[in-house]
Amino acid sequence: MNNNIVILGTQWGDEGKGKIVDFLSLDSAYVVRYHGGHNAGHTLVVDGKKIVLHLIPSGLLHPNVIGIIANGVVISPFELIKEIKMLKKNYISIKNRLFISDSAPLILPYHIEMDIAREKKLGVNAIGTTGRGIGPAYEDKIARRALRMNDLKDENKLSLRLEEIVDYYNSQLVSFYKHKSINYKTILNNLIKVKDLICDMIQDTTSILFKAIENNKKIIFEGAQGSFLDIDHGTYPYVTSSNTTVGSAITGTGIGPKNLNYILGVTKAYSTRVGNGPFCTETFGKIDDYLSKRGQEFGATTGRKRRTGWLDGVLLRKAVKMNSLSGLCLTKLDILDNLKEIKICTSYKNIGVNNKNYPSFYGFENVEPVYEVYPGWMKSTLGIRKIQDLPKEARNYINCIERIARISVDMISTGPDRFDTIIVNNPFLKID
Ligand code: GDP
Ligand code: IMO
Ligand code: MG
Q1: Phi/psi of residue 268, each to 5°?
Q2: Ligand 2 neighbourhood includes 114 CB (under 6 angstroms)
Q3: What class of enzyme is it (predicted)?
Q4: Is there a contact between 413 and 16 (Cβ–Cβ < 8 Å)?
Q5: Which CATH superfamily is domain 4-93+204-423 in?
Q6: Which residues are catalytic?
Q7: pLDDT per residue over 345-385, tens digit each?
Q8: For the packed helices 109-122 and 155-170, what is the interaxial angle rounded to 10 degrees?
Q9: CATH code at 109-201
Q10: 58 closest CA partner among 69, 48, 49, 47
Q11: What is the reported pTM?
Q12: Ligand 1 in reach of 416 Cβ (< 6 A)
């Protein structure tokens, strides 16, 4: 019997995954990041104190939880060290309880420069990336040219490979992108300064997970970004460069699919998106002002204003299917408290030949949302921890989401604090 949960986003990221991972980690032994990099920004609020994590698994605020950054993550060694220091300042030690895969590719300064140079060249067609070098780092992985964590262990080899790769990048950066060049020696020296700290944490994390599974330890797999930023299934090319859907929890760790026992889709009660790309339920004017101010919808990584919109029930239904979700966690319900009317998109107009229930993104530019409108509750739900204490209109809104997305809402989040959470069906107990 295993007790493993995957927690992933069903929209375009920032659904509140970090908060839910932190909350459910109270009951878990391991928390594993399995894809993405420091483009993620996961916010945790405990006793009024806010901590934003980009790379380190969100369960590590609990002193007994073991964290793993698995092979599917692209890791900037410098960001990793920064984050460990930030936690230390907050009296959280990760000593002997954070393990990093030997096979995880590195993000180095040339990836960041390339990301910035490409976005600049794209101009108005830019993706709106986080500028963290994520795309170029995954390109190196697929091109079989990446430096990986294990390469930090052999300084001579590292130095030779790094020189070759920097040459390759400089030729593109300078000739094609008319961008500044990068200095191989500076990168090498900086890597040498941090590598000993990191080498202590490098392990074959797949074996650690096999052992944890054999010992029936509870494991949480922490997704980053959201389902429609997926490189294959998202709004391409306005996506990130990893698979954000459930398959990454397998390929990004090395464990098998039977070890994923419950898959929780975290869904914001409305929608947001940072960066460019189609967003058919996007709101402007008063509603956008309301959602972005009350929801504090500014990126946890880049500080950019997030675009806002109504919940897209059609895409949510697709996210349920794509990820084989077991249940949803609806977050930020309290943000809707002062709205007289709340809308959910339940179908599209001008969908052409596209599948009505599970549309693809070809021809998506022309799609128009058809909304169902629900009465708001006009009462505070902030911090409510029992389902029966929610106003009846809020319960009605939740029931409608269940009907439209064809899945149960097993958890509800009513505030940023770890404990502002309603458990309708505990994912750990729902596993048979
Ligand atoms: P993530 O990337 O999915 O982990 O989400 P982010 O941390 O980027 O963004 C979610 C934001 O909403 C953070 O500022 C959280 O503290 C906050 N948050 C999460 N759940 C709730 C909730 O139920 N209510 C409110 N008001 N804020 C929440
Ligand atoms: P969390 O884990 C929201 C978006 C960027 C951009 C696109 C590509 O906090 O939910 P990238 O830098 O990945 O190449 O950018 O993806 N993006 C996110 N949006 N939340 C995230 O992570 C994101 N990570 C990347 O804004 O549109
Ligand atoms: Mg975020």
Answers
A1: -70, 145
A2: no
A3: ligase
A4: yes
A5: Adenylosuccinate Synthetase, subunit A, domain 1 (3.40.440.10)
A6: 14, 42, 141
A7: 999 998 887 788 898 998 888 899 999 999 999 999 999 99
A8: 20
A9: 1.10.300.10
A10: 69
A11: 0.98
A12: yes
